[in-house]
Every structure is written in structure tokens, then in C-alpha cells.
Amino acid sequence: MLLYAAFLWLSVRGSNETSASTSRLRILWTAALMAYVCHVMAAFHFYHHWSHQHALEHTARRIDAMLGFSFGYGIYFSHLFLIIWLVDVGWWWLAPNAYQRRSNWIGRWVHWFLFFIAVNGTIVFESGAIRSASMLFLFLWAGRNSVELAVTINRYMEGHHRRMKVAYLTAGAAGMYCGSCLRDNTIAKAMRKQGVDVQLLPTYTPIRTDEEDASHAEVFFGGVNVFLQQKIPLFRYLPKWLDGILDRPGFIRWATKRSSSIDAKQLGGLTLSMLQGSRGFRQRSGTVVRLVCLSLSA
Q: Positive or negative, the Cα torsion across 108, 8, 89, 35?
């Protein structure tokens, strides 16, 4: 438990992800596993005398005393705990690059499961000095660093070693050359050259530039659809497939090919509707945040 807590603490404290700090974390994580393996071997040798049936019966008695029903097969959760930890450590040593690129949900579930079993093993189903020491350590640390503890666990399980993804919103100008579009496109390309994982997300209409278009292929909050939903209530209830057609970049380019400027006075209601978010006329298509998250997770 102490080694696992130290691993999580150092994984955030060593936020400058150098190869040396990563190597130290891996060694600490491996040492924690080896300590647990020694614990399991000692328990089976000195207490269960290498009898798995004895271990099953012991587990059943402990669960019955704690929860009021006998369930010896609970020991297999401990076995699964060891297997998952072995696989996690082995993966980190044998394929470190693939380990650091693994999906967020893998790290999230691995560490939540390990933490759950560790707390049960040292507090819920333990007694005496071990339980008291574990509870004291957990409460003191969580009480003093509650926010930091949450950030520590989440940052590691969310894969804090990965590059941050940036969503750069830019508004199209209905087929016209626009200074803002040109600027945003240039900035996004420059950020990518610097190694930043950035998505340039056009809103309302596709952007038009005098150089390579670096924007996302999808248009968020298609201008034609937004305007029609605001002005004609029927368009707020279109089926999703037809709603999607109206948001297609090709259709928007065709519809705005001969467009002219609109009096800003006519856009007051639309502006208020957008500010209302999920309570506005675009609630059926979700919010900008949801759409941006979908694009970044792709």
C-alpha cells in the first residue's frame, strides 16, 4: 500500500517526463509488485501450508465474519489482482512505448481495481495494527492533500504522460476569404510543427484560405442548420440523418455560394439561443463541448 501510494505521488511530482524519472517509476512499481508477491508466498507457506483449499476456507470464514455470508471464492479476486499487476508490470518492461500509448480506460480500470483490492486487503478485511496504520495513513494523507490526491490518481490514470490535445475553434466566413480564418489556419499549422496535437475546428461554415487547409473535415454547428432551426421550428425536429446532411461541408458551401451579408439585428435571437446552451434551439444536437470532445477522441 505504501509503495503504491509512493508510486502515484511520484508519478505526478515527476511531471517532467524524462527517461530517468520514468525508469525510477517503473522500478518503484516493480518493487511494489515484488513485495506483494513475497507477501502472498509467505502467507501460503507459513499460514496455508501451500493448501489452496485451506486458503478458500479461510477466505470464506473472513467474509462470513465481516459480511454475514460465506464466499470462499473471493480469494480469486486476489488472484486476479496479482495477475493484472503482473501483466501491467510486464507490459511496461517488455513494450514501454506501447505501454505509454495505451488507451486511457486501460490505465483507469487497472488502477481503480488495484486500489479497491488494496483498501479491502489492508483496511476492510484486516484488523489490529495493520488496519489502524493503514486507516491513519489514508486519512492523514487524504485529509491533508485531498485535492492533490484526486488530481494524482486522475492524472496518472488519464495518461498524464501523453501530449495534451488542443481544440482550436475558428468561424468560417461562408466561402469568402477571411482574415481570422487565414490567421487561425496559419497558427494551427505552426503549432503542429512545434509538436502540438491541435485540431482546427471550423464552426458555422468551412473556412477558406490561400494555403493548405488545416481544419477538421467536419463543420460544427453548421450555419445553415443553425439559422433554419432558429427561424423555422419544424427544422428543430428533423431526423438525425437529415440533420447531418444540412451540416455537411459540401452542402454548406453550395448553400452559401451566393450569400450576402446579413443585418446583425436579425441575429439577436440566434445569439441568445446559443448562449442558452442546452436550453436553446440546438439542444437536440448537443453542445460545442460535446462535439469537440468527440472530434478529439477520434
A: negative
